[in-house]
Amino acid sequence: MKSSVMRISNITMVGLRAIARNKMRSFLTALGIIIGVGCVIAVVAIGNGATKSVENTINSLGTNYIMLFPGAATSSGARMFTGNSTLTADDADAIKAECPAVAYVSPTVRAAAQIVAGELNWGTSIQGVSVDYPLIRSWNVSQGTFFSDQDVKGASKVCVLGTTVADNLFPDGEAAGQIVRIKNVPFKVLGVLEKKGGNMMGQDQDDTVIAPYTTVMKRLSGKTKIDMIQLSAVSADQVQQAQNEIDAVLRQRHRIAPNGDADFQMRSQEEIAQASGAQTAILRILLLVIAGISLLVGGIGIMNIMLVSVTERTREIGIRMAIGAKGRHVLLQFLFEAVTLAIVGGALGIALGIGASLAVKRFLQWPIVVTPASVALSFGVAAFVGIFFGYYPARKAAKLDPIDALRYE
Amino acid sequence: MVHEPNDPKKVIEIHGLTKVYEMGEVEVRALAGVDLLVDEGEFLAVMGPSGSGKSTLMNILGCLDRPTDGTYLLDGVDVSTLNRDERAVIRNAKIGFVFQSFNLLPRTSAAENVELPLIYGDLGWSRAERRKAAMDALFRVGLKGREHSHSSQLSGGQQQRVAIARALVTNPAMLLADEPTGNLDSRTSEEIIGIFQSLNDSGKTVVLITHEPDIAQHAKRVVTVRDGVIQNDEKIQQHRVGVRDNVSGIGPPVPAIAAEATS
Ligand SMILES: Nc1ncnc2c1ncn2[C@@H]1O[C@H](COP(=O)(O)OP(=O)(O)OP(=O)(O)O)[C@@H](O)[C@H]1O
Ligand SMILES: [Mg+2]
Known about the structure:
The structure holds 2 protein chains of 2 kinds. By secondary structure, chain A is an alpha+beta fold. Chain A has helices spanning 2-21, 23-60, 89-98, 133-137, 149-153, 163-169, 213-221, 239-254, 269-312, 314-322, 327-364, 372-398, 402-407, and strands at 65-70, 72-73, 79-80, 102-117, 120-129, 141-144, 158-161, 179-182, 185-193, 208-212, 228-233, 264-268. Chain A is built from 13 helices and 12 strands. In chain A, the strands form 2 sheets. Chain A has a 6-stranded mixed β-barrel with strand order 4-5-10-7-9-8, surrounded by 4 helices. The mean pLDDT of chain A is 85. Chain B has one domain (40-66, 83-262): P-loop containing nucleotide triphosphate hydrolases (Rossmann fold, 3-Layer(aba) Sandwich), CATH 3.40.50.300. Helix content of chain B is 32%, strand content 26%. In chain B, the strands form 2 sheets. A 6-stranded mixed sheet of chain B has the order 6-7-8-3-9-10, with helices on both faces. In chain B, strands 2-1-4-5 form a 4-stranded antiparallel sheet, with helices on one face. Residues 21, 23, 28, 30, 48, 50-56, 211 of chain B line the site of adenosine-5'-triphosphate. Magnesium ion binds at residues 54-55 of chain B.
């Protein structure tokens, strides 16, 4: 028993020496695995980062959050929006007044515009909301104040800037108290919002200007209907109750029978998260397929070089057999070589992948999440690839006839 | 076969050995009934013209191949019916091969080459014990000081010495050499044959295959094969003596080893 354990360790030494003897070729053999595993780690890290960031954004909506937008849900579940919004600010007021499960309500109007401050200008999106908005989004000002109910009622020309806008328009000074021009209308900046951080869908949540919805409708967009209503339920477990109450109030106001098609739709934070989760699942499957293909290519590379190596070393195999190596010693030696190459390649690939991920994080500012699970999995898969693709060449070596192998030139 | 108690031990005992190669329709009878007895401590040369069956015989003697028919007892063990793995064990324990083309592992030091059979063996030796045995074997063939040289840094004669050390290191029942001097000049051939002679003097059984009569004359007994049968078997009374001054097969090491090692 002792001697067979020792023999195994001797034979693994033999495999290691063979790798060390052919450093360049060993490296090239492992390169496929290095790149494959590196890709897997980097791509999974970026994918995880994206998912995490979307999740964070959705979570930051708060568990009480409900979105209400115009347009009917058809029987197929798709949202139909004809372009004519059916929601008004009065709907919002009615909901606030009549639904006990609803805590805060903000009509929301959107417009895109160029903001000018002195010499500087910045293109961004303007959101018209009510004073409830900071409470719904738990988003406070870090500088100055938010606008008041008075400002909303009087459609005052006031606004609050997201940090991205504030940084770009007032790079070296307080934004609060300054004047900006939006579509030639002067707006007084009341404050700057706290930094929210980016989200992954190509949007920067801080790249925005918030103004009273009345002002946006009157001065900027000229719309009479609102784009959507954002709300929050009094608590997370009241979200369903709130949705039922809103449904009843709006059907009554829009004169829609309880069994008729509604001209509005609601999404709770949970539903938004589910929809995004489904997208993420597709992304994950795609990434796994890419990862699988790159490891397959790496594995075929190992098999290819191992086959060449077996042919090249036929004579060596013959010598080893002549002096007493059994078929399985030769099999183990070549298998061990293949697995070592795969594992070392896997380890280098992990380092490469983490390095690439960090570079992406540093230079592209993308969020990156390297999970131990993806590292462990790639490592395991690399070892498996080594065994799987190393087995055939190793068996070929083990089956050589010593007489033929010795005669091989 | 009944042996007298004081008969010398038989290393090779072959009866009615045949080897037939099937090549499609054609059958080649490479060995057509060989009987051969070799005692422990003999130095046997096998001669014969090309195609007579020398290599075929050597492959079977070396347990690289199996006879089609007949029996072969090696060191008292019937090896004619062993399978692949069993033959590998026998090769490792009982046979030391020396080939015409040296057959050392490339990019591997002399000491590592010599250690190789011990790695596959059953002795259960530690690394240090294996290294020591390899050093001793290299010393016996006069290669002290060149343990760490790779084959590309050694002359043909030195490479063949490494190969002999590798054959010796497991202390096998016999050394089996196939044209060991075929790739060497005559002076170096004399040295190599001298090593075999001194090893034989110290009791090692040697079977040497050659087609050079000069080389065969160094053995104590010459067997001639022709068309797959043994045609002639003679003892050599006055065998030639090879160059013996720089090996230590017997007796204390000779000072000339150092000179050889640095040359
Ligand atoms: N693997 C094989 N398949 C078929 N025939 C073979 C095989 N090996 C040897 N032979 C035949 O067996 C006969 C004996 O060959 P062998 O190689 O033993 O001769 P040899 O005495 O070693 O010759 P040489 O001195 O040229 O090496 C030859 O006719 C050869 O063609
Ligand atoms: Mg031959």
